[in-house]
Amino acid sequence: MAFKKDVETNTKEYEFTSVPKDQRKSYTSLTIVWTGYVFVVTSMMTGGGLAAGLTFKEIVYVCILGNIFLGIIATLVSIISSKNGLSFALLTKYSFGTNGSRIASFFVPFVNLGWYIIQAATYGHFIALIFNLGSFGEGIAMIASALVMGVFALSGMKAITILGYVSIPAIVFLSIATSVKAIQITGGIEHILSYRPSAPMAISTGITAIIGTWILSSATCIADIMRYAKNTRDAIASSLTGLLLGNSLMILCGALAAIAVDNSDLPAVLLSMGLLIPSIILMTTNIFTTNAANLYSNSLNLSNSFNMDRKKMITILLIIAAIGTLTKPYEINFLFTFLNTLGNIIPPLAGIIIADYFILNKGHYEDFNKVTFKNWNPLAFITWIISLILSFVLPFGLPALTSLISSIIIFPVLTIIVSKLNVKGGKNYEEI
């Protein structure tokens, strides 16, 4: 406990406790940080990838459905985090237990680090294309990108907010400008609407890709931002603004650019359109805002897992990320495999927390500083495994939706059944 108190005093990032009421932020500040997080080049790359298999009308359709799904999850998680002022890592203590929380909060940053590496590598690849750096130069550029992006995460939420205020206007303007340029290149909006892909993709695959783009953040990382909300209304409004407007804008802009030049490699697309300076600004602001918040969230989760100072943890993550960029994960095939995997694995985690809070605890958690947590809750992990299995074996529906709904149903059912059995048997599983 002495270590935790010392960390809180020095960093004021509240890794191990709830955010005080007098430190909460307005809707505008929350939206700047969350939308900056959502405004990311990989969403544009997802749009470009969708253009390879869907018509533009179909892309709009899957974009709406996918982001509504994400919005529902984000809203529920935002309500929980804003009411309790807790990060995702601390929220998992209620449903997974103290030791179980360490595993749950370790898994999330492990996957989230993949996002950080993809984006840092994409930016390094982009810089290498501009300056014709070659293979060796590209490796240096990717490593440097991963390291430089970590500076804002080290400085905490205040620095990330300032970065968002500077970057978001540029991202919005340049994204729209890129789309207008794409429409001009193709000869008008009627050509965009009449576009037919060469290799048709299933609608369900497109929706899963949209969900995979932000399921991790909508289910987990958003809690690390919305814990600063002054009230649930601001948290909900901010989360929906980022997804329904921000993420949709990025995906559709990426799709338009890809349709215009028949290429889903976003850096190459922007350069082929003759948008050198705008593309540098867009890529830089786009990726930096997201990766800074990404690494910040990672540090909070891993601080919980390893009981380590947040800044020391960020240093370790930066070294891992720098090395990871050398695998060149910006390749579009790798990206879509990664997104579809996330789209199935992450929802049960959010479902367990949602069910625990809204169903088992009836929308109220005991004060974090007063509650006595169990060490382990094996039912949470059993639910996670069963939900994953169901998402793969059931022949109908979207796997992500299946796993989410399954976890929301299975966790409280198992908890109630085991609780009744323990009462009859004179045992309490919470003592395990």
From TrEMBL:
Protein localization: Membrane
Domain of life: Bacteria
Predominant subcellular localization, coarse grouping: membrane
Transmembrane segments: 31-53, 59-80, 101-118, 124-155, 162-183, 203-223, 235-260, 266-292, 313-330, 336-359, 379-398, 404-423
GO molecular function: cytosine transmembrane transporter activity
Gene Ontology CC annotations of this record: plasma membrane
Membrane topology listed for this record: Multi-pass membrane protein
Keywords: Membrane, Transmembrane, Transmembrane helix
Gene3D superfamilies: Hydantoin permease
Pfam families reported in the protein's UniProt record: Transp_cyt_pur (PF02133)
PANTHER family, per database record: CYTOSINE PERMEASE, CYTOSINE TRANSPORTER CODB
Stated family: Belongs to the purine-cytosine permease (2.A.39) family.
Protein name: Cytosine permease
Organism: Clostridium tertium
Classification of source organism: Bacteria, Bacillati, Bacillota, Clostridia, Eubacteriales
